[in-house]
Write a structure and sequence with these properties.
Elements: H1 2-6, E1 14-18, E2 22-23, E3 26-27, H2 32-41, H3 43-46, E4 51-53, E5 61-65, E6 70-74, E7 81-87, E8 97-102, E9 107-112, H4 118-124, E10 133-135, E11 140-145, E12 148-153, H5 163-167, E13 171-177, H6 182-192, E14 195-199, E15 203-208, E16 213-218, H7 223-230, E17 235-238, H8 249-252, E18 259-263, E19 268-272, E20 279-285, E21 301-304, H9 308-312, H10 325-329, H11 333-348, H12 359-365, E22 377-381, E23 386-393, E24 396-401, E25 406-412
Parallel strand pairs: 1-8, 14-21
Antiparallel strand pairs: 1-2, 2-3, 4-5, 5-6, 6-7, 7-13, 8-9, 10-11, 11-12, 12-13, 14-15, 15-16, 17-18, 18-19, 19-20, 20-25, 22-23, 23-24, 24-25
């Protein structure tokens, strides 16, 4: 139904389509936040985002662009762009300049404006005829290639149409897509996203591929050290002022103000104690589609190293034990590389508490039985008419959506009350 809404609203513009690569500035496998940033920077050209749909169950996330006549589909698990649909034309309402960049020679074959036919597209792709199939109850004809497919309108009610008729069918839609295997997807995933290992009562360890590096942020790390490891955050503001404008922050920060460092690309926030200037809390976000803060953060892919510690209420290490700075910066690349591969299973397995977990599953892993749990805190998001529940445990707070899915976890030092 999105096609019907777009038919009369698409502006004339030039599109560069590259199979298995993307459409214009929209690149396949880009993160959701990267696409949103691209749209925000080009808002004068593209207009605002018309609609974003998705659920909390790991299903696809769709983003609609009326003025462009484009639909973007993101993988619900990794939240990376996997399919781009371009509505091309019907009765000359849409006039586009299509440029197809094909093969390693980057061959440019184009036809300006007008409607493309099945025969023209076959010739464009280097073949006079090509096997086709019917989709959508034979309303459309599909012409599929590696990384790109063309959809044509079928106005005939005859199920046995001839090739001569098909050759004259007009192009309706173009789709550029990825078809990665599971192994390839996981390999690409480990390159794009940092993997976060949660050490309860201690902090987090960040594994990054392909550099095969490890970074560690522990409670009571100094503010300057955090900046040296993670570089400057995308945003920063003092909690006590309730100000997230990002203006004049250092001038307003006083000794009593806790400072929040937003690392949107990592998917987490770090809270610095305003008096001690050391790490006080770490907040990891799952970027749930139903959450009011959806699309501000990349999804943080984390897992809890030792979930049994929560069930046993294991106390963190003594405060007086200081770790060596040199061990925090980087481990041997071969060892870390093996650990990155090992973490992939823990990020998606129901046997671990991770960014895909649901509250029922979390309680089972904590051996808490089926007794009803009291909500520690209930937060109403008035603008979105939604609410989230917070459940506190030793060294961690779980934020849970009404659907039961995990929105975020907040980690804090357990060596102090």
């Amino acid at each position: 139904t999105w096609d019907n809404q777009l038919k009369k609203s698409v502006i004339e513009m030039e599109l560069t389509i590259s199979p298995k690569i993307g459409v214009g500035k929209f690149k396949l496998r880009n993160r959701f936040s990267e696409v949103i940033t691209e749209l925000q920077e080009g808002v004068d050209t593209f207009g605002e985002v018309d609609c974003v749909t998705g659920d909390n169950t790991g299903g696809p996330i769709y983003l609609y662009r009326k003025k462009q006549g484009i639909k973007l589909r993101f993988n619900g698990l990794t939240q990376t762009l996997e399919l781009i649909e371009v509505l091309y034309g019907e009765k000359q309402l849409l006039k586009r300049k299509i440029q197809l960049y094909l093969s390693k020679e980057n061959l440019n074959r184009a036809k300006d404006g007008g409607l493309l036919t099945f025969e023209f597209v076959c010739n464009l792709m280097g073949q006079a005829t090509y096997p086709f199939s019917f989709i959508n109850n034979s309303k459309h004809i599909l012409l599929k290639y590696d990384g790109i497919c063309f959809i044509f309108e079928n106005l005939s009610a005859d199920s046995k149409i001839k090739q001569a008729y098909v050759n004259k069918c007009k192009l309706y839609k173009i789709a550029v897509y990825t078809h990665d295997t599971i192994e390839a997807s996981l390999a690409q995933f480990s390159i794009q996203y940092p993997i976060i290992e949660v050490l309860l009562g201690k902090g987090i360890e960040i594994y990054q591929s392909p550099e095969c590096t490890k970074k560690s942020i522990y409670f009571k790390d100094e503010y300057d050290y955090v900046l040296s490891v993670l570089k400057n955050p995308q945003k920063i503001y003092p909690l006590s002022l309730g100000d997230s404008t990002g203006k004049g922050l250092f001038l307003k920060w006083n000794k009593a103000s806790d400072l929040v460092l937003n690392y949107f690309s990592y998917g987490f926030d770090i809270v610095i104690n305003g008096e001690t200037h050391r790490v006080k809390k770490i907040i990891l976000h799952t970027n749930l589609p139903s959450h009011p803060l959806f699309h501000y953060y990349d999804r943080c892919f984390f897992y809890i190293d030792n979930p049994e510690a929560l069930a046993k209420k294991k106390v963190a290490e003594d405060e007086g034990k200081e770790k060596e700075k040199i061990a925090k910066k980087e481990e041997d690349k071969e060892i870390v590389g093996k650990k990155v591969s090992k973490h992939i299973e823990q990020l998606f397995s129901p046997k671990w508490i991770n960014s895909q977990s649901e509250w029922k599953q979390i309680r089972e892993l904590l051996n808490e039985g089926e007794a009803e749990e009291e909500v520690s805190y209930l937060r109403n998001w008035t603008k979105q008419l939604t609410k989230t529940m917070y459940y506190a445990r030793e060294g961690i707070i779980f934020e849970i959506a009404e659907s039961g899915h995990l929105c975020s976890i907040t980690l804090f030092d357990t060596s102090q009350q």
